[in-house]
Write a structure and sequence with these properties.
CATH superfamily of the largest domain: Hypothetical protein, domain 2
CATH class of the largest domain: Mainly Alpha
CATH architecture of the largest domain: Orthogonal Bundle
Distance between the termini: 46 Å
Oligomer: single chain
CATH topology of the largest domain: Endonuclease III, domain 1
Shape: elongated
Order of helices and strands: HHHHHHHHHH
Helix content: 55-70%
Length: about 220
């Protein structure tokens, strides 16, 4: 599957400058943002991201910190087996389905990819439990391909900052890739997700702590 097409908007110079300034400030605050999932290899990363669907990074890290000590390769994961894997991830939502997918993924990686994670979008998305979002996170985190995985945090921040008006994650992704300056696209996913997780939170955004509050068209909705 190909990358989602960008949806370019004709932006006035002032709007281009505003958006560029937003991401330049994010870069100043954190030049090399990374996932908060713990991993030491592409395989550990793809497993952790797959496990993180509808779960927090904190809960996944607690599980994988123990899991990866005994199963950090497809071969070791396959030897652990589905029931063995469940003992490590039972605290994570949808663990039964995730265990099945992770074991099937391990078998496919061994049979078709020499035990290595293919760093190619089409091949990644063909793996059990790896959809577009998971593939985007993996490829972007490993700096293989600029991609923006749109979760609830990214969706919220993109709308509040006036970066997108898309109604679906795919449309938001396409619009973001069309307006974010190209040199910053690889890191934009993490800037947006971390901003949404810790500052631009859902119910009471911390506008007083926001480095781009003066550039936010939604600030008046939350600040008296």
């Amino acid at each position: 599957m190909a990358r989602a097409p960008t949806r370019s908007r004709k932006l006035k110079p002032a709007e281009q400058a505003r958006i560029a300034e937003i991401f330049e400030r994010f870069e100043t605050a954190e030049s090399d943002p990374r996932t908060e999932l713990n991993y030491a290899s592409p395989y550990e990363l793809v497993v952790a991201v797959a496990l993180s669907a509808q779960a927090t990074d904190v809960s996944v890290n607690k599980a994988t910190d123990r899991l990866f000590k005994v199963a950090d390769t497809p071969k070791a994961m396959l030897a652990l087996g589905e029931d063995g894997l469940k003992t490590f991830i039972s605290s994570i939502g949808l663990f039964n389905t995730k265990a099945k997918n992770v074991i099937r993924m391990a078998q496919i990686l061994i049979d078709e990819h020499g035990g290595e994670v293919p760093l190619d979008r089409e091949k990644l998305q063909a793996l059990p439990g790896v959809g577009r979002k998971t593939a985007s996170v993996v490829l972007n985190e490993l700096r293989v391909e600029p991609a923006i995985a749109v979760d609830t945090h990214v969706f919220r921040v993109a709308h509040r900052l006036g970066l997108s008006t898309g109604k679906t994650p795919d449309k938001v992704e396409a619009e973001l890739m069309g307006v974010i300056p190209e040199p910053l696209q690889t890191r934009a996913h993490h800037w947006l997700i971390l901003h949404g997780r810790y500052v631009c939170v859902a119910r009471r955004p911390k506008c007083g702590d926001c480095p781009v509050a003066d550039l936010c068209p939604s600030r008046h909705l939350f600040v008296d």
